[in-house]
Amino acid sequence: MSSSEVLSHRRTFLTSVVTGAAILTAAKVGNAATLLSESGVVADESWVRRIRGRHRQVVDCTSHDDGFGIAYGLNFIDTTKEALKLPDAEFTSVISYRHWAMPLMLSDDIWGKYRIGEVLNITDPKTKAPATRNIYRDNVFGRPGLTYEEVLATKPLIMTACNLAVTVLSGIAGAKVGVSAEQAKTEWTAGLLPGVQLVPSGVYAVHRAQQAGCTYCNGR
Fold it and tell me: What is the β-pairing status of strands 91-97 and 197-199?
């Protein structure tokens, strides 16, 4: 992605934050500051204590990037294991899904109901139409058939989802399909894939992972 495209995505997200705040205000939830301060900040830090081993890295994902973020995390584990001849116990990879990347952590049901393919401009290669399912969760680059759930169950890898992105994007998507901001936020939170950790924000997750000894990888 070029620098101009990155800037364009960021401007779009900021516009969406303002739009989402306006929608939620109309629904009598409050202004943007109230929305973000009362959005159900999650204090569970058990995931930080799971960061172990000598080799630790956090992948910072801010766009869907065709689902490639998880491939960075797996490549880090697999290639370093092979190069240094080490077991899984020596590794932890944290994937922080924030900004436009956060919806990759949602179930097919949420993608369908809230037309996430339209929101993120993602086309399902099978239907050639805006995706109504999470086309990335069972399509890990270079690993056919591997699902996000299987990765979480079998690899030393942690996935986090940004609570602020959940709050803002669910409000925007909910308004498009006639669902209140409160209901949309509740359903998106419940619709996170099994094993995904909701965190106060994506940048918070990146910060805490680095405090726990992770190096940084830009997952785009």
Answer: unpaired
Q: Cβ atoms within 10 A of the Cβ of 144, count?
A: 8
Residue 174 tokens, joined? 């909910």
So what's the pLDDT on residue 31? 39
CA distance 112 to 129: 12
Report the C-alpha gap between 92 and 158 in whole angstroms.
8
Whether 202 contacts 159, CB under 8 Å: no
Q: Report, at the CATH architecture level, how domain 44-218 is classified.
A: 3-Layer(aba) Sandwich (3.40)
Q: Does residue 154 surpass a pLDDT of 70?
A: yes
The enclosing H or E element of 58 equals strand 55-61
Give the pairing type, strands 129-130 and 123-124: antiparallel
pLDDT for position 37: 46
**Structure tokens belonging to residue 44:** 């569970």
Q: Identify the pLDDT of residue 11.
A: 54
Residue whose entry in the numeric block shows the structure tokens 């890898």: 157
Q: Which residues neighbour 107 within 8 Å (Cβ) at sequence distance 6 or greater?
A: 134, 191, 192, 193
User: Would you kindly state where each structural domain of the chain is located, as residue ranges?
Assistant: 44-218
